[in-house]
């Protein structure tokens, strides 16, 4: 990575400071370049860079492209095998089952405790400001648009919002809700978690302490993975409970209920088609494409847009809509959207073939608006037309003249915040679940511990010694010993773990085969190159004359630190490190498990070069794969961990934490926590701990 010279500690401090300071930045309401603007806001400043070696900056990107392509090919093969109506019906049932496996079971349907806090009368409709509880104490704020003069039940629509600062009050979202109401639909539009009146990380001024929308979704959603929850299901459950409420209204025909939304609301519309069977029509806007297009285009997405195991289960965006087949679904796309319109067309063609087999080809449609991302008028009118065809509620698809309300008119709470109304924040639910799991969890050791760790990490095994490259020397690095040589150890096809051998002898070739069995392997926090220059542990290790010093950058760190998504974005919440960690979750191959695999393969490589007794050292983020590898490798005789995570429970049970998604393991707290591993290594491998880090990523 090129840039100004700074120490690795300075980089870490800057990254933490940037994370905190940028919490005050929120996404401008529905900019045409909504997601692109967001990415610019979260990009790291230029002076955060550190001058370190990075010879494989696109390695991780190309690895994940290959993996996502492999999964897409399996999805397409499933679809291509369909020949009859019965095949198609079986496919619909299959996607419904697989979606449920990804999202998990529905929570308990607890009382909605609905209340109307205000009513606003307009010319042809009224607006009721409503609060419901999707979970006990978890408040959802919504506006119900009801046409006047209703004499019999009429169609209803649930509206889901995208990344607008003001949620349901955003102009485009008011517009589609009001437009539908003026055409004879009852519309319930609700605030998403972390937006509008539903800020979860609320300060004394009732504003978000970390940033509205994406920031809250990432911060709360990443943390949820630890306890087996996922934000995709939490957000979808809000939509399901919104439908539950809508169907309590006598004005609504339960046989005609639809769902629509844009961007993040397009995501929710898509997911809701997959998890809720009661819809009779749907129109997701500015979201549907393919996971492959998003990966290839280096487009990050929020935690709720990356459901766990979804790729492993061979699901794509189209499959969530297939779960509704043969009900009417129109994909609303945009020619100039960052959600690739090519993927939208690919999704449509897959669905068209499925619908044709079901005898309802006319019930699937694709509309491509000419402009940029957003629920603009042409997309709204395409939605009106589609719902009108499905229901017969109106013959008019053109949008009527609208009245855009002030945000305060649409507030359901006195001050525009559920925090002021006593809503229970999402992170409190996560903390409580962590505490419940701790009570249920039994301490594990020995083979039982190894079994649950291997399962959580999805560890795989490859027979044989990994091949490796010998890279050209780079001098003048001021390492603790005079010479170094770099080996790129191929841990699996397309992945190089970069290993430095540091010694007082000049080498251009393979490691000497007769230097003795003792070696020290240091797993870096961010960069072996930087840490060799400044880490006291490495200076100390270099003086151990009987042991040869090696360091290791696992995938996505140091020499393969990604230079992708946005420039200098690695340390940011929405940057390249998060991007790959989120895809690892969707592939059901936790990023930490992949990195642990790299360490184990490097240990095999060291063994093949004569080093059968290893002192394994890990620091910071690198202490996690070092810990797990030490559990499984008989070569490791001694372990030293500096700045190792105290426990995943500490992260799950706090409001604020600074460990990235790349260090977290989905559902880990169901079976074990880091203290189990430390106790095992203390007994068997002479574990030494130095300055452990808590949830905020420091020892303070």
UniProtKB/TrEMBL annotation:
Domain Acetyl xylan esterase, residue spans: 124-296
Protein keywords: Hydrolase
InterPro entries attached to this UniProt entry: AB_hydrolase_fold, AXE1_dom, FrsA_esterase, TAT_signal
Alphabetized PROSITE patterns for the sequence: TAT
SUPFAM superfamilies, A to Z: alpha/beta-Hydrolases (SSF53474)
Any one GO molecular-function label of the UniProt entry: hydrolase activity
The name this protein goes by in its record: Alpha/beta hydrolase family protein
Organism: Gimesia aquarii
């Amino acid at each position: 990575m090129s840039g100004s010279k700074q120490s690795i500690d300075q980089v870490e401090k800057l990254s933490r400071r940037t994370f905190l300071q940028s919490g005050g930045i929120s996404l401008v309401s529905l900019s045409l370049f909504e997601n692109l603007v967001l990415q610019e806001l979260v990009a790291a400043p230029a002076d955060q860079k550190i001058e370190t070696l990075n010879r494989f900056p696109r390695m991780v990107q190309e690895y994940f492209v290959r993996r996502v392509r492999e999964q897409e090919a399996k999805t397409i093969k499933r679809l291509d095998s369909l020949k009859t109506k019965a095949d198609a019906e079986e496919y619909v049932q299959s996607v419904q089952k697989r979606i449920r496996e990804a999202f998990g079971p529905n929570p308990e349907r607890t009382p909605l405790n609905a209340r109307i806090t205000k009513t606003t009368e307009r010319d042809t409709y009224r607006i009721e400001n409503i609060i419901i509880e999707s979970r006990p104490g978890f408040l959802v704020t919504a506006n119900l648009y009801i046409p006047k003069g209703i004499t019999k039940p009429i169609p209803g629509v649930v509206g889901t919002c995208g990344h607008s600062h003001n949620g349901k009050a955003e102009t485009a979202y008011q517009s589609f809700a009001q437009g539908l109401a003026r055409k004879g639909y009852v519309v319930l539009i609700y605030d998403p978690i972390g937006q509008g009146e539903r800020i979860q990380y609320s300060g004394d001024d009732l504003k978000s302490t970390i940033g509205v929308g994406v920031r809250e979704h990432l911060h709360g959603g990443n943390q949820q993975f630890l306890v087996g929850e996922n934000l995709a299901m939490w957000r979808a459950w809000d939509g399901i409970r919104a439908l539950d409420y809508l169907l309590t209204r006598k004005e609504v025909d339960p046989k005609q209920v639809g769902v629509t939304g844009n961007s993040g609301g397009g995501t929710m519309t898509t997911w809701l088609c997959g998890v809720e069977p009661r819809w009779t029509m749907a129109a997701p806007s500015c979201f549907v494409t393919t996971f492959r297009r998003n990966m290839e285009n280096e487009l990050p997405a929020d935690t709720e847009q990356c459901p766990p195991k979804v790729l492993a289960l061979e699901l794509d965006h189209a499959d969530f809509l297939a779960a509704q087949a043969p009900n009417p679904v129109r994909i609303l796309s945009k020619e100039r959207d960052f959600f690739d319109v090519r993927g939208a067309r690919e999704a449509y063609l897959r669905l068209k073939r499925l619908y044709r087999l079901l005898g309802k080809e006319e019930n699937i449609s694709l509309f491509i608006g000419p402009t940029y991302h957003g629920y603009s008028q042409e997309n709204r009118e395409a939605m009106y037309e589609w719902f009108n065809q499905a229901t017969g509620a109106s013959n008019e698809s053109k949008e009527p003249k609208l009245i855009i309300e002030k945000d305060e008119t649409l507030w359901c709470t006195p001050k525009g915040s559920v925090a002021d109304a006593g809503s229970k924040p999402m992170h409190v639910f996560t903390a409580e679940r962590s505490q419940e799991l701790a009570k249920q969890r039994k301490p594990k050791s020995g083979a039982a511990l190894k079994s649950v760790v291997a399962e959580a990490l999805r560890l795989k095994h490859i027979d044989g010694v990994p091949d490796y490259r010998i890279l050209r020397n780079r001098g003048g690095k001021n390492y603790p010993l005079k010479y170094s040589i770099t080996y790129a150890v191929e841990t699996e096809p397309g992945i190089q773990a970069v290993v430095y051998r540091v010694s007082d002898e000049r080498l251009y070739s393979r490691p000497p085969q007769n230097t003795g069995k003792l070696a020290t392997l240091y797993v870096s926090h961010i960069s072996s190159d930087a840490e060799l220059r400044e880490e006291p542990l490495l200076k100390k290790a270099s003086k151990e004359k009987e042991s040869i010093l090696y360091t290791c950058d696992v995938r996505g760190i140091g020499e393969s630190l990604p230079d992708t998504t946005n420039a200098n974005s690695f340390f940011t919440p929405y940057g390249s490190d998060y991007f790959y960690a989120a895809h690892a979750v969707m592939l059901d191959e936790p990023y930490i498990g992949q990195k642990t695999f790299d360490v184990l393969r490097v240990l095999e490589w060291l063994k093949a070069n004569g080093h059968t007794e290893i002192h394994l050292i890990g620091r910071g983020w690198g202490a996690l794969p070092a810990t797990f590898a030490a559990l499984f490798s008989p070569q490791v005789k001694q372990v030293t961990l500096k700045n190792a995570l105290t426990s995943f429970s500490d992260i799950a049970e706090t409001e604020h934490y600074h460990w990235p998604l790349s260090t977290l393991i989905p559902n880990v707290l169901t079976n074990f926590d880091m203290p189990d591993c430390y106790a095992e290594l203390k007994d068997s491998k002479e574990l030494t701990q130095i300055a452990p880090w808590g949830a905020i990523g420091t020892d303070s």
